Structure formats: C-alpha cells, structure tokens
Amino acid sequence: MKHSIKVNINGQLYLEEVETSMTLLQFIRDKVGLTGTKSGCENGECGACTVIMNGNPVRSCIILAVEADGAEIITVEGLGEKDKLHPLQQSFIETGAAQCGFCTPGMLMAGKALLDKKKNPSNEDITEALGGHLCRCTGYKSISKAVEVALSKNNRN
Ligand code: FES
Ligand code: FES
User: Which of 4, 54, 51, 48 is nearest to 24 (CA)?
Assistant: First the structure.
C-alpha cells in the first residue's frame, strides 16, 4: 500500500509516495538520493543511520518513512558546506576522529543534536550522546575529543 508523505530534509520539501514498509533510512538514501546517511545493522543498534528529526537524533533504520510525514530532518549533507565545514566536521578532521568514515555521519549528527540542545554539555553528556554508536576504527576517545574541541570553538565564537 502506498502513502503520500511530505518531509522537509535539509530545508528542502520532498513530496513522495512510499510503501508502508519503507524505512526513513531507505527514503533518505533511495528515494531522495542522500547517501551520506549510512546503512549499517538496519536494526537500531549501530547508530550509522542517525539523522536529526524535529530536533532529536533518531536511528532512521527503525523509523518508517510514513512516521516522518510532516517532519523536519537534517542529514549530514545539511550540516556544513564544502567551503564552510560545521565546527564538528572540522574538529573530527583535526583530532583524527574519522578513519574509514562509515560511522562518522551518525556520530556527527548525534554530536550536533547535543550541541544544539546544550550549550555546555558535560563529558557525561557527550558520552551519553555518543553511546551506542559503534566505530570499528578509531576507538572512541578521538570522537569524544572532537566533540569537546567543537564545543570549545563554539563557546569562543
Ligand atoms: S543502521 Fe540504523 S542503527 Fe544501525
Ligand atoms: S571511522 Fe570506521 S567505523 Fe568509525
């Protein structure tokens, strides 16, 4: 069965027909063509597919596209621009927090959701925000460090 949905992604409105069973992750990648959001476990466990929906980080593989009808979504493509990276993207580069990069979009979106909500998050807040996001390459210290560096830059500006 098909449903019409209207979803704002990175400031652009998408009106599409979707199957009931289509996930938000499939919608973002396959219908809209934004492939920065990664598909990992497809079971809500790795965090690779995290996007921000109505201000909150969500795992798009366990949300149906129809549930996102009317929502505002930010994906990693909406985070910064080629010539003007988001502070988080810049700090991930500076601290070596990305290697293969597969987990990075999800980590970035979880970090952004945290920094949008809390001006001065504690180390515990950072750990909690990144909790459950799996990374096979970096160890997690450089990723937490990257969020701390972005935070200190934000607070200097
Ligand atoms: S792909 Fe969604 S949590 Fe792993
Ligand atoms: S950088 Fe490779 S999985 Fe995290």
Answer: 51
Asked whether 51 lines ligand 1 (CB < 6 A), one says: no
Whose tokens are 């810049």? That residue is 90
Ligand at minimal distance from the CA of 39 is 1
Same domain, 9 and 74: yes
Tens digit of pLDDT for each residue in 94-136?
A: 999 999 999 999 999 999 999 999 988 999 999 999 999 999 9
Neighbours of 121 (CB within 10 A): 18
Q: Whole-model pTM above 0.85? A: yes
Residues 8 and 73 in one domain: yes
Closest CA to ligand 1's atom 3: 44
138 lines ligand 2 (CB under 6 A): yes
> For residue 128, what is the enclosing H or E element?
helix 123-130
Quickly count: other Cβ atoms within 10 Å of residue 51's Cβ: 30
Element of type H or E holding 8 = strand 2-9
| CA torsion through residues 150, 136, 45, 52, sign | positive
Angle CA 86–90–96, to nearest 5? 145
Range of the structural domain that residue 152 is part of: 87-156
